[in-house]
Amino acid sequence: MFDLPQLDLKNKVSAQEWQLRVDLAACYRLVEHFRWGDLIYTHLSARLPGTDHYLVNAFGLTFDEVTASNLVKVDLDGNIIDDTPFSINPAGFTIHSAIHEVREDAHCVIHLHTKETIAVATQKNGLLPLSQYSMFSLPSLSYHGYEGLAVNDDERKVLQDDLGSTNHMLLVNHGGLTVGPTVGDAFMRFYDLQRACEIQLALQSSSQEVIEVPQPIIDNIYNQANVVHSGSTGGQLAWPAMLRKAYRLDPSFAK
Predict the structure, then answer these.
(1) CATH for 15-244?
(2) What is the pTM of this model?
């Protein structure tokens, strides 16, 4: 009950898979650090390049218990590939397998239930152009209506259609979601979405009139955001710093 099985896959998988496991496990620990978690009920996944297999957290573990070795490898049908004592969250399978099935570029998917993303997703006007952080999300933002707990297979097609080619999603009454070609990109996108929602709620709670970003700036922000948050000048620079932070917090994730 209290002693988790101790797994060690470091020398049993390829170097590429091990690095992906380390990055994803670090991301779970960072989500816990930033207090974006929801007990055991949200999920992050990373697809193994060139395969239909992806890694996701073992259902029942808190995010500060996730390690590179206890991540579970599954296929797009939800079958567990490796020998493991753990199972996966059915809702996590529905959401992540649906996205990995149709988005070859979405090697990492982050779905969280933060109070701020739930609150903004549930407002009729959704995310507003009120901060620089919102500029990173708005040009590539979609919405998905609430259909109950995400365990119905019929929801997969709707979710796929709603996400389309966007990289940020607000799930009405439910939370936030981001995708990226790497764990670092998906993490940075969720960081921006989360901050945008926090700032919007802070402004809405004040009695002051707000200034919205003009539409022409919003229309041009996507190319600017690509400079800041991708390639050698953005997300790929931020992720090594976040990885170093995860090691400082608790290096046990990399086991």
Answers:
(1) 3.40.225.10
(2) 0.87
